[in-house]
């Protein structure tokens, strides 16, 4: 999706939702992906509710079909990730 720094957040959300709808109309799945090789995620037990609610919000808002949690290397054991993510 092209970068439009002049767009408002609502315009960006609408454009993204439109792209998701196009993929769904082609019977394709859209996955929310967290992490990756060069990403450092460190969550604390106190963030479980906030983290869970944010994921639910994003899935509902953009109609994601699933979630890919990809913690690698040091991120697996960082903070309380083992408890928060699982």
Structural class, please? alpha+beta
Could you tell me the mean pLDDT? 85
End-to-end C-alpha gap = 31 Å
Number of strands: 2
Low-confidence stretches: none
Radius of gyration: 15 Å
How does the major sheet shape up? 2 strands, parallel
Strand content: 5-15%
Helix and strand sequence: HEHEH
Helix content: 40-55%
Number of helices: 3
Described by the principal axes of the CA atoms, the overall outline is elongated
Strand order of the largest sheet: 1-2
Write the layout of secondary structure elements.
Blueprint: H1 9-25, E1 31-35, H2 48-62, E2 66-70, H3 81-85
Parallel strand pairs: 1-2
Relevant terms:
86 residues, alpha+beta, two-stranded parallel sheet, 3 helices, 43% helix, 12% strand
Describe the fold and architecture.
The chain has helices at 9-25, 48-62, 81-85; strands spanning 31-35, 66-70. The protein has 86 residues and is α+β, with helices and mostly antiparallel strands. The protein has a domain at 26-85. Helix 2 links the parallel strand 1 (31-35) and strand 2. The longest helix has 17 residues, at 9-25. It is elongated. The model has no long low-confidence stretch (mean pLDDT 85).
Short description:
The protein is elongated and about 35 Å long. The chain has helices spanning 9-25, 48-62, 81-85; strands at 31-35, 66-70.
